Each structure stands twice: as C-alpha cells, then as structure tokens.
C-alpha cells in the first residue's frame, strides 16, 4: 500500500470502439487465421487538479488496416461525458505512442490543452517507416500543434530519463512496440499502475499462459524459457528490447494495456485481471490454471 503522503489517482477505462485484427498479433506462437475484435481504449486519470487523458482512439474505421466498429456511446465526447468530463476540462493528454488507433481524436481536444508526446515518436511517425500505421490526418493535426504555442509538449526521455510530468505521474521510455513508445506510471491507492500502450495485447497470455514449444504449422513459438514473458507479434523494436520492456513492466501492481483488460500482479506474478472500468477494482482470477 502507498504511504499517506503520496498522492493517489483513480484510472477509468474508455472504449473508443473496436479494432479488427488477426489473433496471432496478440501473442507469438498463435497460428494465424482467426479474426477477432479488440477494444481501442483510452484512459482518464482522475484525482489531480484536472482530468488527464491517455491516448485518444481512432478518427474513423477507414484508417484501420482490417477495419473496426464504433458502437453506440463509444464516440470520443460520449466516453468523456460518461465520467463527467468535457474535452476542455482536460489538464493534458499523454500519448503512449501515435499509431492510428491512439491519436485519432486529438483534433477534438482544444489547442489550449497540451498534448504530451515523446519527441522521437513524432519524428519516426513522420518518416513513413511504418507505412499507414500512422494516419496522415493525425500527423497533420500534430504538426499544427507544433506551430501553436502551448499546444504540444515534447518529452525527450531517451536523454532525460524518466520524467515526472504531474505530481506522482512519471513518464518513461518503454523500449518496446515503437522506438518512441512510453510507459506512464500512475500511483493508486493499491499500488502503481503502468499504462503501457501496446507493449502487451494479452497480459494473461504473456505472463501466465504463454504459448510454448516447437514450430506448429510454421508458426514461430514464444520463448522457451518458462520465466520469460511471451511477446506480441506487433512491434518494431528488436526482440531483445521488447522482452526487456515486458520484464520492466513486472515491477508494477497493475499493467494497463490499450487493447486488453488490465492485469494485476503480486510480487511480479500475474494473479488476475480487472474486467470493470475502474482501476483499482475487483480482481477476476486467471482464466487458465498453471
């Protein structure tokens, strides 16, 4: 538990619609061919001077590779309003990274609300190195912010190291998914939460019920060592960087990914997930026993 002199926050999940993917993207070792939908989530951090938004969904399904679906009540303003928040109420927006399913609604946030992003992430996004993984209109909006005083705040985490951006809230270089991805450490009453973007797509599968063994139908298996986390099939860093990033995440009480339920850890061991919209919240035990 946290000491009484530390500020603690509550995190609320926002669902901005679904993204259609091949299930094999979630974990190395899963055979391709099963098409599923995963949520495109953002998060509200409450308890400080003003609400903080982490990530902002996609602007419309046309930017997604395989499509998706936005259901009733999953619009940007609607999701904020469900928690009594308007876009202009936000103190800032913190971006884990700028992929098309994370940066799509930033143009609905007033320019006087700063967007925090790691400088190297915007730099690599504008090179075209990942094709259309970054949406053109999203990048246009971010460049407008660059030329609007106060509309964007750059982090330089490769040089500065971890940076406290608000009382108790620390941004650090992730080292996984994209070269400029960051993780956001948020203290809660039940321990620190790590908002990790797309470092994990399936927290339980990565930490508790990893695919193991030999090649099956030509599918690359996950790591053979039982203590290693299984990795997703969606990253642009090296395998060594990705597994290091996953292991660093084990230091936290909650692992909060963009496309899965938050995972709950105890001494670095996965003990369950949070299915509700509030973190901390009730813990559901693992689906699979070991």
The major sheet is characterized as: 8 strands, mixed
**CA(first)-CA(last) distance:** 28 Å
Radius of gyration, in Å, reads: 18 Å
Q: How many domains would you count in the coordinates?
A: 1
Instruction: Please report which band the strand proportion falls in: under 5%, 5-15%, 15-25%, 25-35%, 35-45% or over 45%.
Output: 25-35%
Q: What is the count of DSSP helices, taking H or I runs of 4+ residues?
A: 6
SSE inventory with pairings:
Layout: E1 10-22, E2 35-46, E3 52-54, E4 68-69, H1 76-81, E5 92-94, E6 115-118, H2 119-125, H3 136-146, E7 152-155, H4 157-160, E8 163-166, E9 169-173, E10 182-188, E11 191-197, H5 203-207, H6 239-248, E12 254-257, E13 263-266, E14 269-273, E15 278-279
Parallel strand pairs: 3-5, 5-6, 6-7, 11-12
Antiparallel strand pairs: 1-2, 1-4, 1-15, 2-3, 8-9, 9-10, 10-11, 12-13, 13-14
Q: What report would you give on this structure?
A:
The chain has one domain: Metallo-beta-lactamase, Chain A (4-Layer Sandwich), CATH 3.60.15. The longest helix has 11 residues, at 136-146. The chain is 15% helix and 27% strand. The protein has 290 residues and is of the alpha+beta class. It has helices at residues 76-81, 119-125, 136-146, 157-160, 203-207, 239-248; strands at residues 10-22, 35-46, 52-54, 68-69, 92-94, 115-118, 152-155, 163-166, 169-173, 182-188, 191-197, 254-257, 263-266, 269-273, 278-279. The protein contains six helices and 15 strands. The strands form two sheets. Strands 1, 2, 3, 4, 5, 6, 7 and 15 form an eight-stranded mixed sheet that branches. A seven-stranded mixed sheet has the order 8-9-10-11-12-13-14.
């Amino acid at each position: 538990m946290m000491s009484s002199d530390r500020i603690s926050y509550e995190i609320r999940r926002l669902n901005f619609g679904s993204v259609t993917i091949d299930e094999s993207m979630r974990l190395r070792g899963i055979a391709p061919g099963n098409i599923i939908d995963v949520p495109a989530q953002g998060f509200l951090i409450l308890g400080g001077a003003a609400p903080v938004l982490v990530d902002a969904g996609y602007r419309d399904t046309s930017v997604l590779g395989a499509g998706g679906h936005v259901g009733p009540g999953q619009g940007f303003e609607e999701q904020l309003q469900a928690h009594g928040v308007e876009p202009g109420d936000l103190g800032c927006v913190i971006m884990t990274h700028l992929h098309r399913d994370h940066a799509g609604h930033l143009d609905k946030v007033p320019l006087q609300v700063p967007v925090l992003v790691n400088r190297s992430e915007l730099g690599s996004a504008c090179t075209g190195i990942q094709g259309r993984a970054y949406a053109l209109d999203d990048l246009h909006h971010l460049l407008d912010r660059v030329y609007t005083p106060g509309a964007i705040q750059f982090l330089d985490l490769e040089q500065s190291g971890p940076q406290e951006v608000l009382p108790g809230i620390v941004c650090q270089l992730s080292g996984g998914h994209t070269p400029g991805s960051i993780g956001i450490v948020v203290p809660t009453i039940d321990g620190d939460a790590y908002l990790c973007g797309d470092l994990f797509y399936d927290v339980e599968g990565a930490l508790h019920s990893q695919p193991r063994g030999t090649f099956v139908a030509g599918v690359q298996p996950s790591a053979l060592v039982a203590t290693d986390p299984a990795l997703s099939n969606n990253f642009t860093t090296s395998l060594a960087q990705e597994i290091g990033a996953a292991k660093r995440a084990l230091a936290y009480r909650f692992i909060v990914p963009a496309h899965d339920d938050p995972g709950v850890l105890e001494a670095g061991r996965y003990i369950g997930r949070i299915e509700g919209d509030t973190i901390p919240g009730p813990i559901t035990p693992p689906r699979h026993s070991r």
